[in-house]
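Batch 3, record 17
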Amino acid sequence: MKDWQIAGTVEIGSLHARYVATIDHHRAADLPTLFTESGVLASVITGRSTPKSELRAYLEDVIQSRKEDAWTNIRHFITPPSINFVDEGRATSECYFAAFNAQSIDHWGVYGDVLERVDGNWLFARRSVEILGATPNGWVGSGAAVLSNDSEL
Amino acid sequence: MSQQVENPIGEALSEEIKAVVEIRNLYGAYFSSVDANDAEGVGRLFTENGVLVSNVMGWTCEVRKAIVDYIDQLRSSWTEIRIHIASPSIMLADASHADGRCYFTVFSARGIDHWGVYTDVFENDDGSWLFSKRSIDLIGRSSDSRAGPSEMADKDR
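Prediction for the assembled complex:
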């Protein structure tokens, strides 16, 4: 690997971690800062894409949908990513997640990303979220999540 | 799109840091290739004489071609699972040898299927870090998991 790929790997891993910290700690105002100006958060299941300008409101709606106490603080465990560089400014990545509520595993799936380096920072140009399973009585599995299966974070 | 890339961790990356990042990438490439049933891609992650020992399935593959055949046989019919890996522990022995250890949890649509640990030996083969040996050990499994030696035995019938 070239030095820029090494550096990019570290930076993209950090971006993945910041995404989780942002959503798990309900920092809705920070979520758009992780995306490029034309960046989108997309649901593979519903086909919905949320643009950067709507990400803050989207995360706020998602948090509001967690009516049960056990769902208040959902935590996302992510795997180290698989990263492929297109060039020094573009890459794709993939990582799995398992989201836990206060009682059990809630849901799990995969993030698929298109990344761009803007002003020296790697950002999501597109993050797609696909849920591969959910515990029936959890926040996602019960159907309580806002916009049904669309509230995948 | 070519930009000046500033190194965030110093003017010159040490060989040790490069090795650790490259080996971490190898861990990512393994789960991504296996779960995509890209058997040829998995094979490229091993040295030509690489060994894959699955104590989960009771199977040992010696040399790259055997690994490709094994992954293709196993995952072409077992497509619904995904391998979640933890952060690996990587220990460099010298400029071209390293060891690693990493826990994994395999999920299906029903939940956790089985879990265990990878124990790895790496070699730097002509500038690229590759698995020279990967051993897979089971720590636990769900009651309805297909993980186990009978799975591969069934395929031989």
